[in-house]
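Sequence only, no structure available. Ideas?
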Amino acid sequence: MVGQAPGRIVHNTGIPWNDKSGDNLRDWLEVSSEEFYNVEDFGIIPMGFCYPGTGKSGDLPPRKECAKEWHQALLDKMTNVRLMLLIGKYAQDYYLPEVRKWSLTKKVEHFQQFLPDYFVLPHPSPRNNIWQAKNPWFKEEVLPVLRYEVKKILS
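Reply:
I predicted one. C-alpha cells follow.
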C-alpha cells in the first residue's frame, strides 16, 4: 500500500493507518487489523515519512524528497509484491505520471486500466465522505473488485 504521509494521530502513535482513515481502509479491504498489520501479507509505504504539518485545509502534502529517496530501495526488498494499492492523489501521481492530469475521480473510474499492477483508490479519510456520496459507483463497482483482488492474493 502506498499512502500519503502520516497524519497527526499516526505520527503520535507511530502506527501507520492507526486512525479513522485506517479503519475505513480496512473496511474497504474487508480485512481485520491483525491481517492488515501482518507484514507477510501487506507492506505499507507512505509518500512522506514524517508528519508534514497542518495547512489551511488539513494536513500539508507529503514531502517530495521522501519517495525519491526511499521508495525504490524499499520496493527492492519486497520480493513478492503482487498488487500495489495507490491510495490518494500523491501516490497515483508518483506511480502513474502518464495520467497525472486526470482527476482523482477519473483515475478511480478507470481503475481496471491500471490492473494487475496497481489499484487506484481515493484516500479513505472521513473528509472524503462527500466524494463517496457523490460517487456511489465507488462502493458498488470498485470496492467489490478490490475485495476480490485482495482475497485472491491472500488465499
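DSSP finds eight helices and six strands in the chain.
Hope that gets you unstuck.
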